[in-house]
């Protein structure tokens, strides 16, 4: 099927799904105080290869309707993947029946009408591929072939290609009914490097909303091989306290812990190490985190959140100071505040580098002597206390240059102190995530080794 035909079909599908949402709202509206309905329909292919053979080819076309009703502060929710008129009517009935058994909650209900996204911008999120299976298989195989060619120490654990597009529609009884189409594509390769009985697994990937903006299969295979081979011969280092540089891929995770800590659910449950922190400095004064939901083709771009609240461009951190919590309708009401449009997640966080010319090489020079972290494992983060302890691998650095790979270490600290002790952030920005951040240099952390 041609791309133009796919685009026409998706637009037609969005109109059809909008009519279904409107009908479901109409059916429920006469029987309850308020109602909201959403549909997410996706179509795509997924291909995997292993050692040059096609291992798996999947075509997916699925979706579901979810409906939530509110009456006398009670809430009922139901969903269905059957979008026939009869199934929709049964789902409406089920949501209303479930509502009868729930306890009243003064914080349940729709958000404020003034914050709803009645008009939305076109964020250029829809760039579907033609879902050509032969081309997908060829790209996945090419990543493996490149990795094998790169080094005789490499064996391949798989090449993977994914391409999909979706239609999302949301409506509620306040009169909002909006939807949009979006696409995503990715290509990845996983490899194993082996030498003298030591094995190291690694991978590389590329992703984009526009398939023509993906890195080439050659780039993916080469990156995967180079990363795996670079970690061969890894050593343990003694327990110590040293400066630590998180490469951009893992630095994103440090900021993601901030997301969890300032999310409304963590705040109203008092299960966050950043309680009562709005208006307080939690980062160095030079650091700003801008959230921009309206970046064209952005990974995290969206005109509204999962509750229909319009998204807003704003500073989350401004000159080191926390400006807002991340609130859904429910958490906002629990805290006596207003929704910030964060039901369902965040939208393109842009973390400011400390200087515009601080590439990874410059960050190594700034580190001088210490540890570079390239991968993390385990879930050793306590959101209540901020205590941080995770297994890690990476490299030992002296005189601003990588000396040798290291493994079997644990990196530990407390996130409050880690955030305050950020020395620099590089301009080697990780762009494949809804958090865009360069490598992060921490003044000092505890390393547990041999």
From TrEMBL:
Pfam families from the UniProt entry: PmbA_TldD_1st, PmbA_TldD_2nd, PmbA_TldD_3rd
Gene3D superfamilies from the UniProt entry: PmbA/TldD superfamily (3.30.2290.10)
Residue intervals of the Metalloprotease TldD/E N-terminal domain: 35-97
Entry GO MF terms: metallopeptidase activity
GO cellular component, one term: cytosol
Residues of the Metalloprotease TldD/E C-terminal domain: 240-449
All copies of domain Metalloprotease TldD/E central, residue ranges: 127-232
GO biological process terms, semicolon-separated: proteolysis
Assigned protein family: Belongs to the peptidase U62 family.
Protein's UniProt name: Metalloprotease PmbA
Organism: Gilliamella apis
């Amino acid at each position: 099927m041609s791309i133009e035909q796919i685009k026409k079909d998706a637009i037609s599908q969005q109109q059809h799904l909008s009519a279904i949402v409107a009908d479901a709202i109409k059916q429920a509206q006469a029987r309850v105080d308020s109602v909201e309905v959403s549909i997410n329909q996706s179509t795509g292919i997924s291909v995997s290869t292993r050692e040059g053979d096609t291992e798996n080819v999947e075509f997916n076309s699925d979706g579901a309707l979810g409906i939530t009703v509110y009456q006398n502060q009670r809430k009922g929710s139901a969903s269905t993947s059957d979008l026939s008129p009869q199934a929709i009517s049964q789902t409406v009935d089920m949501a209303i029946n479930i509502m009868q058994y729930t306890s009243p909650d003064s914080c349940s209900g729709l958000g404020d009408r003034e914050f709803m996204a009645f008009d939305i911008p076109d964020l250029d999120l829809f760039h579907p591929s033609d879902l050509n299976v032969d081309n997908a298989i060829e790209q996945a195989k090419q990543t493996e072939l490149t990795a094998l060619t790169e080094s005789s120490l490499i064996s391949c654990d798989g090449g993977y290609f994914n391409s999909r597009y979706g239609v999302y529609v949301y409506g509620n009884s306040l009169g909002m009914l909006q939807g949009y189409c979006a696409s995503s594509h990715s290509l990845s390769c996983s490899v194993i490097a082996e030498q003298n009985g030591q094995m190291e697994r690694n991978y590389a990937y590329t992703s984009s909303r526009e398939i023509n903006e993906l890195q080439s299969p050659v780039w993916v295979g080469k990156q995967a091989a180079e990363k795996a081979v670079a970690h061969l011969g890894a050593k343990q280092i003694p327990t110590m306290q040293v400066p630590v540089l998180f490469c951009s891929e893992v630095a994103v995770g440090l900021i993601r812990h901030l997301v969890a800590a300032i999310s409304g659910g963590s705040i109203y449950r008092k299960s966050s190490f950043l309680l009562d922190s709005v208006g307080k400095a939690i980062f160095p004064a030079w650091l700003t985190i801008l959230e921009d939901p309206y970046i064209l083709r952005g990974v995290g771009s969206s005109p509204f959140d999962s509750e229909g609240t319009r998204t807003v461009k704003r500073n989350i951190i401004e000159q080191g100071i926390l400006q807002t919590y991340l609130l859904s309708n429910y958490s906002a009401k629990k805290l006596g505040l207003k929704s910030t449009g964060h039901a369902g997640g965040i939208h393109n966080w842009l973390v400011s580098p400390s200087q515009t010319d601080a590439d990874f090489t410059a960050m190594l020079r700034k580190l001088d002597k210490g540890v570079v972290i390239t991968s993390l494992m385990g879930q050793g983060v306590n959101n209540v206390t901020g205590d941080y302890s995770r297994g890690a691998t990476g490299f030992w650095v002296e005189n601003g240059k990588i000396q040798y790979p290291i493994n079997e270490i644990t990196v530990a600290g407390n996130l409050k102190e880690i955030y305050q002790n950020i020395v620099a952030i590089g301009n080697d920005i990780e762009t494949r995530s809804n958090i865009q951040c360069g490598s992060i240099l921490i003044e000092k952390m505890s390393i547990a080794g041999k």
